Amino acid sequence: MPLLASILRSMLPSGTRVVVSGAAVRGVMGKSVEDLYAEQPHLRTVVDFIAQNVAGLPLKCYIRRSDSDRERDTTGALPLLLRNPNPVMTGYDLIYQTLMEWCLYGRATWLVGRSSSSESGWEIRLIPTAWITSKDGSDGFSYDQLSFRPTDGAASTVSVPTSQCVMFCSYKPGEPANALSPVESLRQTLAEQMEAQEFRRGVWANAARITGYIARPAGVDWTEAGATRFREDIKNNWGRGGSRSGGTPVLEDGMTYQPVEYNAREKDWAAGVQLSREDVAAAYHINPSVIWPGSGQTYASAKDNARSLYADTLMPLLTMIAQRVNKDLLPMIGAPAAEYVEFDIRAKLQGSFEEQASALQSAVGGPWMSREEARGLMNMPAEPAGDLIVPLNVLVGGLASPNDTAPKSGYVMEPWQPAEKGHDPACGCPSCASLKSGEAPDGLKASGHPADEDVSAYESALRAFYRRQRKSVLSRIGAKSAPARKDGEPAWWDAERWDRELAEDLMDSIMAGSERAAKSALEALGIDPALYDVPRTRNFLLALARSRAAQINAVTLAQLEAAVDGEVGEDAEGSTPEGVFDKAEGSRAAQQAQSLATAIAGWSVLEASRQCAPSTAMKTWNTTSSSPRASHRRMDGETVPIDSKFSNGADWPGDSTALPVEDVANCRCEVTVTIPD
Length: 677
Fold this sequence. Notes:
Elements: H1 3-10, E1 17-19, H2 33-39, H3 41-55, E2 59-66, E3 69-73, H4 77-83, H5 91-105, E4 107-114, E5 122-127, E6 132-136, E7 145-148, E8 158-161, E9 165-169, H6 187-206, E10 212-215, H7 224-238, E11 256-259, H8 269-283, H9 288-291, H10 299-313, H11 315-333, E12 339-343, H12 346-349, H13 353-365, H14 371-377, H15 392-395, H16 430-437, E13 443-447, H17 452-479, E14 485-486, E15 489-490, H18 495-524, H19 538-564, H20 577-612, E16 618-622, H21 630-635, E17 639-641, H22 661-664, E18 670-676
Antiparallel strand pairs: 1-6, 2-3, 2-12, 4-5, 4-9, 6-7, 7-8, 10-11, 13-18, 14-15, 16-17, 16-18
Helix pairs in contact: 3-5, 6-8, 17-18, 17-20, 18-19, 18-20, 19-20
């Protein structure tokens, strides 16, 4: 025996025997823990909620190959045992009942033994804490033996060494070998609730249950026989179960019906119920709003509560179970030393399908996760060809993810793509020669220059929108000096409405301007404009209108918030909400109209070329402003194939799907399409 263990045992009486049956958790008002769980709804709700949510998480087995490599084990003895612990339980049942025992008694015990009939060769039985009659051989920190007897009146007691058990135990001050149930701290709360329930039942059982009475005027003769007949008639016909129950009786001799409202005062019972809920939830470290959502709860708060539940509240329980299984169960069944179990909390914390898809796409583009691993994570079969194609902006552009749009600083994309359109670096044709040099080839050209009437149409639509938005927003700001926020935006702002309305206001002008620019480009290229398919472009242009509307409104909101919060100097333009809209209707509308017209014209020229021009067509980035951005000035004259992207990741100047807002705003660069000679 180790020296420390022998010293500890020498300090205790020989053969220490502690009886725990019946005293594991003291009852409340004569009710055992089993009775409290069955009769107290708040206790049962919280305990069930914890157990169900923990049991619903997958408990997975892994073999650690190195600090950075692990392999999922699904066929070893450990995963088989946890999946089917015994003939009558599933893995969910085992974890669920274990948590129920722990929450009610502060202790749960697994008895582990060999089984020739199970696939794993082992079996786990959960011993109910109420069955345990004694623990023997204590050194102050643990016991050597457990004795238990089923509560169904079995005559014999079974004793097993604790070396065959896996025990989950809470903390009890001064007694490390014993557990303290959370129910102990709820004794007063549960007692008060039981008293309140008993009092409420007494009130309803003894209080008069009348809703009215029949008044008979004085001075009207009424014999005893007549009174009896009337009472029997009312009872048999209009009373409970009567043939005319629910109908209207016809009263005699001037009788009248006098309603009486009876309201048993609840003596603050509703407040007591709420307090009981909060106390029970607090004892188990649960946010009450997770189990009993209030009327003021929003989707955002519910989502945050759900994430907090697993990240904060249930994580200690998950860690306790996993570490106890790793420490005691694995050596017991002879599992490999490198094997361990872990709850897959990602199963609950993962976002929506769209969020998962975006995250997985970014992960695939980065260095830490392969494409086949991502397919496996989504339960998809392996790709027969071995792997999936890598987007060119990742393979060639050196980006971290297909979602990124701009290459690393200092990187210059090669202006030719050998795999596209049959171009080859060894080719001597004029197209390939121009690709290598980065210069536009000679030939027919068409530029995406916006028409003045398009700029004017966009500007008129924006000014009208700002005037309508001003009236609505300023009236709501004035109604609340300190506006409350909802879902991350002020109560006086309705982003969904403004984005939708602005996109609708711009859509007609965008369609007309796009068609005009596309057909003008085809005429310059010597192609029949009638070949251009206008309806084919509507869906993309609608998405572009919505995107631009969201960007424009986001700028307005940011300026309004700064003005409301006093973050803008008093003398500066836009220092007040009214000033923000003055600026919007003035300079901002003109700048935004010019940028939008340039972007629409550029895209339309490319779309017309893709639809109708030869595949050898080229596109060139041209800066037309007298003071362009430095990044755009460096790109002036850059030429790439019609279906390739420019070196900044954009498809055309003003490409808001690829460029950040600051690269799109007030951009007047143009794209020129060339059909080589």
